[in-house]
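Forum > Structural Biology > Help requests

Title: Can anyone predict the 3D structure of Acyl-CoA reductase-like NAD-dependent aldehyde dehydrogenase?

Hi all, first post here. I have the sequence for Acyl-CoA reductase-like NAD-dependent aldehyde dehydrogenase but no way to get a structure on my laptop. I'd be grateful if someone could post the C-alpha cells.
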Amino acid sequence: MTVQSDALLTLDHLLDTVQEPNGREVIDPATGATVGRTRVGTPQDINAAVAAAKQAQPNWAARSHAERSDLLNQAADAVEASAEALAELLSREQGKPLNGPNARFEVGACAAWLRANAGFELEPEVVVDDESGRAELHYKPVGVVGAVGPWNWPMMISIWQLAPALRMGNTVVLKPSEYTPLSVQALVHVLNQVLPADVLHVVPGDGEVGAALISHAQVDKIMFTGSTKTGQAIMRTAADTLARLTLELGGNDAGIVLDDADPQAIAEELFWGAFINTGQTCAAMKRLYVPEGLYDQVCEALVEVAENAPMGVGLDEKNVLGPLQNKQQYDIVARLVQAAKDGGARILTGGDPDESQAGYFYPTTLVADIDNDNPLVAEEQFGPALPIIKYTELDQAIEWANALDVGLGSSVWGNDVDLCRKVAARLEAGTTWINKHGAVDPRIPFGGVKNSGFGLEFGLEGLKHVSVPHVISW
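Reply #1:
Sure, ran it for you. C-alpha cells for Acyl-CoA reductase-like NAD-dependent aldehyde dehydrogenase below:
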C-alpha cells in the first residue's frame, strides 16, 4: 500500500476535513480568534467507535509485525508530507510557536515515534531452557485500546499512545482534550490515509465522552496522560472492567545543581528543561535547587537566557515561547507566582503580566530567594515560572527533591558524572537525567512513580505494556 495522492494537505484542507460547521468553537489562546469548529461526540459515538475497532482488531492482529511496521512507516511518510499544515493548526489551537521545541518539533516527533515503533523487534523471551524443559514468554495484543490525551502535546502524546498499540496489533479509540480537538482529529485523518479502516478512531467530546470510553466493557486497555486526580478517577472506573492501565500523571520535577557545575555552560539546557512548551510539560523541571556558592551565578545566567527567548503569537517565526493554553491554567500560574511574592520571594524577571494584551500570555518568570514550602515550589505550576531554591547541604537538596508525593522526572547538573550518578540514584523519580532535563527518546522507557502514575511507555518495554503476556511451556 502507498500513501494516497492527497497526502500533501494544506491547513485549509485539514480544517475543512475535521471541522463541524455547527460544532463547538475552538479559540486560539494567543489571539482569541476562532480557529475552527469541532464536532462534539457523544457516548453513542464511543459505542460505535469501540464496536468498529473491536470488529477490525482480529484482522489487524492477524497481519505480521512486518506488515504493521510497514504501515506505520507509511503513516510517518504521510505525517511528514503534511507536516507544515499540521504544525500551523497545532500552533493556532494549542498556542505553541512554530519554531523552537514547539509545533514543528512536535509534528516531527510524531513521525519519529511512528518510525521508532515500526523498527522495534519484540522477540519471544526464553525464560527456561534446560533438562527440565523450555518456557517462552510471548506478547500478544490486548485488544481495543482507549487512549485519553492532554492539551499540552496533543499530537505527540497521541502518537505515544497509538503507535505502540497499533504496532502490537491492537486497535485504538482516541479521546482528545476538549481544548485541542482539531489538531488530534487532523492527525488521525492523515494517519487514516494509510491505515486500514476502523483500526484507528477519534471521538472528540467532553468528560461524558471520556467517561464512556474508559468505562466501556469492550475497552481492554486504557492509556491516559493528565492530572493525578483524573488518573485516580480512571483507576476507580477501570476496576469494574479490569481494563489494563498505563497512567502518566502529574509531576513536579526537581533539578539539583551540584557545586562543580558551570553556570554559563548549563544555563541554556536548564532554561529549556523548565520552559519547553512554555512550561506546559509534565516532565519539565518545576523547581531548581542550587548550592549557595553558585546561586547568584546560576540566577544571572538563567535571566540572560530568559530575556533572549521571545514570547508571542505562535505563527510569528521569531517567537519560541507562547501563551498558556487556557484561562484555567493561566489563573493557576498567576496564583502561584502571587503566592511567591506574598511569601517574600524575589522576582528576577517576569511576574507582572500585561493584562491588556490578547491571549493567555504570562511572562517568563524566574523566582529567587523562595522558601521550599512556598506553594510555587510545593505545587505543580505547569507554566512559565521557575522557583530557584538555595541549599547549603546536598543531603538537604535531595531530601527536598524527594519530599513531594510525585515522581515523574528529575535531573542532576555537574561536571563530575560519577557524583551526578550517585545523586541520581538517590532521587525518587521514573527518570533522572544528568545535565539535561525532559529529553525523552522513543527507545528509552518512560513512566512515573508515586502519584505520577505507573506503567511504561517507549521502547520494547512500551510494547510490552500494550500487550498481554502468554507463556508457552513444554
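Residues 1-6 have pLDDT under 50 and may be disordered. The two ends are 39 Å apart (CA to CA).
Shout if anything looks off.
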